[in-house]
Amino acid sequence: MFIRNAWYIAAWAHEVGDKPLGRRICDEPVVLFRDRAGKIGALIDKCCHRGTPLAIGKVVEQGLECGYHGLIFDATGKCVVIPGQDHIPEKAFVRSYPIVEKDECAWIWMGDPARADPALIIDYPWHNDHKKWPHKHALYHIEGSAMLMIDNLMDLTHLGYVHGSTIGGNPAAHVDAKMETTRNENGLRYVRWMLNSVPPPTYSKAVGFTGRVDRWQDFEFKAPSSIIQWSGALEVGKGAQESETREGGFSLRILHSLTPETETTCHYFWSTANGYRQDDPAATEQLYSEIAAAFLEDQAVVAAQQRRLSELGDADVVDIVSDAARIHMRRVMDRLAAQDRSPAQHAAE
Ligand code: FES
Ligand SMILES: [Fe+2]
């Protein structure tokens, strides 16, 4: 079951170029392409002539050309060329999906097009600030559901266990972290403070911390797919908790966005932004590769978890204290899923 009436990242904007890109989203085959005017189109990946995937075609002057008999579709899905005939039948079109390019992402709406309001797309302005937040984009394929990946990001007590050698550091620091949570209708925000703690290896490597630090992790979940993260540390005594900008130590931003591929797999879009040595491309690169290594650890643990849950179900799993944020997230998701299924709700909105 997917929440379809929502915006998901279909691709990083830079992935959509002059070659069609096929991607399964909410278990539907979608093809993305950029027309010659620079506009992104998102169509169902099935030609209306003989059903061939359009992703094996090519982008031409008038739109996307099917690789079998050359029908051409524009970004709205309308067939605009049929080789060898002038008349284009009315039924010659393919389904198109609302798609919006914003903050270096291509956002797709898989539900009712009439409800696709671009104002509902989250803001991620740091992607547009290359000077203050130099960053890199990545995409991991996860052999686990989007929900399990969001669970993972809602319970950071896993850091000390899954990521001990990378971003995690000491497990006790995570379990004892002070957590402030604010809940709202469409998500939640939590800030974890690990005061007077030993910095993890990644942080020390990045800015050369020698002593203890006040470390924060600020996570904002925006249903149904995105988590906006701001993490960092300042040396103890530098006023991390009082400062708004928390400059002068280590600071990074990560966008995590999970797009369902199937019920048990997802696309994990993430970007890392360097907010501590902005003029040093090697630092941006190093941050990215450290995080890339850490997220491979999540990829492995969530895939293993999905395999077991697919085999044995989740009816008997138990919640513990550290699941509080995750439980609120699941409530928000359940409500959205119920609204998504209810036509009466649509009419009432
Ligand atoms: S199947 Fe696409 S043109 Fe024939
Ligand atoms: Fe993780």
Give a quick set of tags describing it.
349 residues; alpha+beta; Rieske Iron-sulfur Protein; Naphthalene 1,2-dioxygenase Alpha Subunit, Chain A, domain 1; 2 domains; 7-stranded antiparallel sheet; 4-stranded antiparallel sheet; 8 helices; globular; disordered C terminus; binds FE2/S2 (inorganic) cluster; binds fe (ii) ion
Topology:
Blueprint: E1 7-12, E2 21-25, E3 28-34, E4 40-44, E5 58-60, E6 63-65, E7 72-73, E8 79-81, E9 99-102, E10 105-109, E11 135-142, H1 146-154, H2 159-162, H3 164-168, H4 171-175, E12 178-184, E13 187-197, H5 201-207, E14 213-222, E15 226-235, E16 250-262, E17 265-274, H6 281-312, H7 324-341, H8 343-348
Antiparallel strand pairs: 1-10, 2-3, 3-4, 5-6, 6-7, 7-8, 9-10, 11-17, 12-13, 13-14, 14-15, 15-16, 16-17
The protein binds FE2/S2 (inorganic) cluster and fe (ii) ion.
FE2/S2 (inorganic) cluster binds next to loops.
Rg is 22 Å
Q: How confident overall, as mean pLDDT? A: 93
Secondary-structure element string? EEEEEEEEEEEHHHHEEHEEEEHHH
Structural class: alpha+beta
Q: Largest beta sheet, briefly?
A: 7 strands, antiparallel
Shape: globular
The total domain count is: 2
Distance between the termini: 22 Å
| Fraction of residues in H or I helices | 10-25%
For the biggest β-sheet, the strand order reads: 11-17-16-15-14-13-12
Number of strands: 17
Small molecules (ligands, ions, cofactors) in the structure? FE2/S2 (inorganic) cluster, fe (ii) ion
In DSSP terms (H or I, runs of 4 or more residues), the helix count works out at: 8
Can you say what the CATH homologous superfamily of the largest domain is?
Naphthalene 1,2-dioxygenase Alpha Subunit, Chain A, domain 1
Strand content: 25-35%
Determine and state the CATH class of the largest domain. Alpha Beta
CATH architecture heading of the largest domain: Alpha-Beta Complex
